[in-house]
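Chains adopt folds. We examine one example:
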Amino acid sequence: MKYLTYFGNHLINAELPDNSQIYYAKPPIAGIKRADIPAQVKKAFENPLGMPPLRELVDGNTKILIAFDNNCQPFPMTKKPDLRQVMIEPLLSMLYSYGAEKVNIQLVCAGGLHRKMKTPELAYMLGKNIMNEFFPHQLRNYDAEDPDNIVSLGKTEHDEIVETDRAVVESDLVIYVDTIQIPLNGGHKSVAVGMGTYNSIAPHHSPHMTAENPHVMQPEHSNMHDSIERMSRVIEGNSKIMVLEAAMNDAIYPLHLRYLGKPNERCNLFERVIKTCTPGTMSMLPEGLRSKIFKSIRTDYDPVEINVGSIDGVHPKTLQVMKDQLMIDVPRQYSTLVFGLPDLTPYAIGARINPILVVSDILGYIFNWFYNKPLIKEGGVVIIMNPTFEIFHDEYHVPYRQFYEEVLSETTDPFEMRNNFQEKYARDPFLIDCYRNKFAYHGFHPFTVWYWATYALKYLSKIVLVGPKDDRVAKRLGVDWARNLKDALGMAREISGEDDVVALTMPPFIYVNVQ
C-alpha cells in the first residue's frame, strides 16, 4: 500500500503493509471570508458573551492593552492580510468611536517564552497602518525577563507562582485577540501563558503534569490545563480580561495543493494524476529548492466563528468548533504508527526543524492529538520518517543546540533533566540575554517541548527514526534507528507479532476519537 507523506522537505510514496489503515482530516468547514471579518468582529464586540458590550467598558480615560499571538498560530502562516490585522483594525476603530484615546492603548505580542518577533514579522501580522500608528513606542514584544515590567500576583491554592506583565494589571481592560486551530490554545492559556514568566510557566510545563495523564493537547482531564486555569483565575482577580477567539477551519492548503491532504476517493482525476507524479517530480529538485517551495506556501485558513467576551463565555464555543472540525472517529487502537514528518513546526518559523523538535512534534503533538485515548496501544511502536539534520538556527535555537549537546548527551529522561539541568538553563545570563535581545527562545523552552513527550516515552515500547544516514542522531535522542521503513516495520512486527499499522496524513490536522 502506498502512503503519500512528507519526509522533511520532500514528498514520498512510502510502502506500507497491504492491510494498513491511513486516516485523513475532514474537509475544512466553510469559514468567514476576509472581507466579512470586520463586520463579524464589530458584531461580536457589540454582543459579547458573559460581559457588557465594549462601548460600556471604555471611555476617554480607559487604559487598554491589546494582546495578540505570535506567528506560531495560525500555523503555517496565512496569506496576507494576516488575520490579526483584519481583526485588530476594526477593533481599534471601535475603540476610537467610543472615545478611547490612542495614548492610552498598548499592543503587545504575547509570546511567553517563545522568541520575540522581528520588526518585519510584526509588520506581516499587523499591517503597515497599525505599525505606523503604534510601533515602536506603543507596540512591543512581551518580555518575560524584564524586571521592570513583571509583577507578582501571589500564588494559587496549589502554591503555584503567578507572574505577568505589569500592563495586564495596570490596564483597565485587557483584550486578547486569539486565532485558535487546536484545543491546546486559547481560553485560560492565552494571558496566563502568553504573558507568563519562567516562574509561572514551569509549574505546568513539567513532566509531573503528564507522567500519568496523557492529556496535554486539550483542556479536558488535563493536569496542565487545570494548573493554567488556576493561575488565570488569579490574574482575572486583578484584571478585566475580554477575549476575542477566532476558531479556525482546517484549510491549510491553497487550492492548487489541496490534493496533498485528501484520500484518492475525494480527489478528481487531475488531482489523482498530480498526486501520483508529485514524489518523482520532487525527487528531481535539489533540497534547497524544495525547502523554498514549502516555505513559500501560505495557508487559506478562515475563522469558522468569531466570539468575544469572558473566557468562560467564549472558550467552550471555540472548543466545540475544534471538535467539529478536527475529530475523526477511529474504531480501535493500533500497534504501530507510521508518520512522515515535514520540515514544519510552530517553533521553527523562519528556520529548519531541529532534532529536538522532531521528537516533540511526534511524541508531544501527534501522539497527543486524541480525545479519549491514544491511537496507539500501550507498548506500541511509533516510526518517524524525517531526515533529522543536526541543524540549529544560530539566532532562534541557541538553547536548543546547547540542550542537544549537553543535556541529551547525559539523559533523555524528563525527570532527570528537570532535576539536573532545568534551573541552570532557565537562569543562565547568556541565554537570558539571547532571549531578551537576540531573538532566541528562552533557555527553558527546549525542556518544555521535551516534557510534552513524557507520557509517550513511557507508554511506547519503541520509537524508531527512519531518515538519518546513520544512528548518531537517534542515539542522542534516545530512540532506535532503522536504515529504511521496511526494516523499521520489521522491528515493530517483532514486538506486536503482526502487521497492525496505522498512518496519518497531516497536515491538515486531526484529533482522533478512538472507539
Remarks:
- The first helix runs from residue 37 to 46.
